[in-house]
Write a structure and sequence with these properties.
The chain is an alpha/beta fold and 339 residues long. It contains 17 helices and five strands. The longest helix is centred in the last third of the chain and has 22 residues. The protein is globular, with a radius of gyration of 21 Å. It comes from Indicator maculatus.
């Protein structure tokens, strides 16, 4: 993800040789996709290998022209994530890139000091992990277990930080960029007190990031062991979901056979009726924590400058809070009813 954020120095079409004399060379992109994934990317994402670098350069030129102060990485591999996430639609990929940075600037509680070691307690709790095996479609399964979180120990934003860093690590893989991911959320033991922390303001922020502010393809969200209280949680979430994403939510209750129709037992841990052994969070934690230096380097370049124009920003936090006031007032009553 590393790269030079100064468009006037990194764009090949800008400046004279003296302008770029001291600019670091941009890493040369080397495709790591298998022949099957190259074919899949062509069919599903409109990615043509023979035009790939031309498309990346087109997006780079658009960033330099329209958002010269965005402060983004301009490496081929980094920009390619956004093109794949938006099926090589230049305009939509550019908007996703702008949103990516806007989300980071507008929620400092989540994005300040964001590195694996800073969320070590969340990782050790097992709140979020990635199963060791991909599903038959080549997708990683991100497992989220809210019952592992104790609100008295740290705020809900720490959980969001852990999920975000997990996604950042996963999206480094070109295979994941093409195949997407699957989410498995186990709501066993989620109480009213925990649910009340996930209000409309937080819900809108999180969903805004996942839908419009991060270059990842979420192919399915499987919910299991959801209590009655989840009806209230989902009622908060659903208004912010696009129809396509809402249709990818699957509520299985306690029916593991239903879950196995979406995620095969061979890749699931014993806790979910699978045959892949006990759920082990240590391997993923070690992998993420070992990436500390990468995150420190990468994220140091992904900060919007204070003078960013309003056109570059999403709805401000104050506006979002105002929009959510009515929902927030009715949230607790709705949750109590469902509980």
């Amino acid at each position: 993800m590393s790269g030079d954020s100064d468009c006037t120095r990194t764009s090949p079409s800008a400046g004279s040789p003296s302008d770029t004399e001291f600019a670091p060379a941009r890493p040369k992109y080397v495709c790591s996709l298998s022949p099957d994934l190259v074919t899949k990317a062509r069919e599903e994402l409109q990615e043509k290998p023979e035009w790939r670098l031309r498309d990346v350069q087109a997006l780079r030129d658009m960033v330099c022209k329209d958002y010269p102060s965005l402060g983004t990485c301009l490496d081929d591999a980094f920009l390619l994530r956004f093109l794949r996430a938006r099926k090589f639609d230049y305009d939509r990929a550019l908007q996703l890139l702008v949103n990516y940075h806007s989300c980071r600037r507008s929620w400092p509680e989540v994005f300040s000091n964001l590195r694996p070691s800073a969320i070590k307690p969340v990782l050790e709790s097992g709140f979020v992990t990635v199963l060791p095996h991909r599903d038959p479609e080549g997708r990683h399964v991100v497992c989220i277990r809210p019952d592992r979180w104790s609100p008295s120990q740290y705020p809900i934003t720490e959980n969001i930080r852990a999920i975000y860093l997990t996604l950042e690590k996963l999206i480094q893989s070109e295979e994941t960029q093409v195949n997407g991911i699957v989410i498995l959320a186990d709501y066993k033991g989620v109480s009213l007190s925990k649910a009340s922390h996930f209000g409309p303001f937080v819900a809108k922020k999180v969903i805004g990031i996942l839908q419009d502010g991060f270059p990842i393809r979420i192919k399915a969200v499987n919910i299991i062991n959801e209590p009655r209280i989840f009806k209230g949680i989902f009622a908060i979430i659903k208004p912010f979901l696009k129809e396509k994403i809402a249709n990818r939510f699957f509520l299985h209750g306690c029916d593991l056979n239903s879950l196995h129709q979406n995620i095969p037992p061979m890749i699931l841990p014993e806790e979910y009726g699978g045959t892949a052994g006990k759920l082990d969070i240590s391997a993923w934690n070690e992998l993420l924590l070992a990436s500390e230096e990468d995150f420190l380097h990468d994220f140091s370049q992904l900060v919007l400058p204070c003078e960013s124009s309003p056109q570059e920003m999403l709805v401000s936090g104050d506006a979002e809070e105002k929009q959510c006031d009515d929902s927030l007032r009715g949230m607790k009553a709705q949750l109590y009813y469902c509980y």
